[in-house]
Amino acid sequence: MTNKELAGKVAIVTGAGRNIGRAIALALADGGASIMVNARSNRAEAEAVVREIEAAGGKALVHIGDVADPAAVRTMIAGRPDVIFHLAGVVSGEAELDFEKGMRVNLDGSRVLLEAVRAIGDGYRPRLVFTSSIAVYGAPFPDAIPDDFHLTPLTSYGAQKAVTELLLADYTRRGFVDGVGIRLPNIVVRPGKPNKAASGFFSGIIREPLAGQEAVLPVDDSVGNWHASPRAAAGFLVHAAGLDAAKLGPRINLAMPGVYCTVADQIAALRRIAGDKVAARIRREPDPLIVRIVAGWPKRFDPRRAIALGFKAENSFDEIIRIHIEEDLDGKIAA
Which residues in the chain land under pLDDT 70? Predict the structure, then answer.
């Protein structure tokens, strides 16, 4: 979606207090859209995003409400937004440790949102961009995952995302919404404090050393994954908002482009950019739960459909690190 296409649009971003949601909200506001920033309970976090949008000359307001609460969601979409970016969710490690919470937020919350849109009726059919995950896939894997690879998730988080993808596709087929599901790579480097995502160490082993802090590495150096920056992730979702439904076709859930590298490759890139002293701040401490979860994730993709539809990511992990230094560290690395 271009800036010209955003002008005059009304968009909602659920879970907008997080870094990707914030980046999307700012991109939308820059294009001239009016934004509703949703957060489950953290009003201060949501209001901080709104202040950034308004400082950039955009229009925004806050909605505090749980996406699993039907009344709250009905209030949130009562104004019939043109685009809904659905990012709210429980992260992978937390969803595995707290099954009920993961199901309530990731699955039930998504269905509540879909049902609230359907209930409006009267021809209302917003574009709904859903943040799915590469965790929807399950082993055994080929060397590179093709677009038509089966979904056999090996975690509760992956299962919740896969079921929501199926619901999104069916609600789209029935004409209730105009959906696009974006299977995000592992997003690195996430700014701020660590969360309970099983993949969090991929960011931690870059973010903490660059900030002068020790980082814990819970897996072997040979572990590989598919990465993209927060900047690329926001770009994926904003681009998805403007996709031509006819070009997308009925297979509305897409794996995104990214950069494949191992943990050893990440550390080598960190050393190239920041030096040996910074790279030495990584401490190895195996975590059996993280090792088990990560072992069930795909590593490399062949996302031809997404690339043909105009989605773009970085070309190297060095580029991903440099984006983090530029955008989150003001160009400064801790000595």
Answer: 1-6
User: With the CA atoms of 102, 104, 105 and 108 taken in that order, what torsion angle do they form, in degrees rounded to the nearest 10?
Assistant: 130
Question: What pLDDT was estimated at residue 4?
Answer: 57
> Do the Cβ atoms of 204 and 186 come closer than 8 Å?
no
User: What's the whole-model pTM score?
Assistant: 0.92
- Catalytic, out of 124, 137, 157, 171: 157
Annotation says 157 is catalytic: yes
280 occurs within a structural domain: no
User: How far is Cα of residue 84 from the mean position of the Cα atoms in its chain?
Assistant: 14
Contacts 24+ apart (CB under 8 A), 150-157: 153/296, 154/296, 155/92, 155/95, 155/96, 155/198, 155/293, 155/296, 156/95, 156/96, 156/99, 156/102, 156/103, 157/90, 157/91, 157/92, 157/95, 157/96, 157/102, 157/106, 157/133
Domain presence at residue 146:
yes
Task: Find the CATH number of the domain harbouring 158.
Answer: 3.40.50.720
Instruction: Tell me if residue 249 falls in helix, strand or coil.
Output: coil
Residue at 266 is within a domain: no
Give residue 28's domain range: 3-185+230-255
User: SS3 for 184?
Assistant: strand
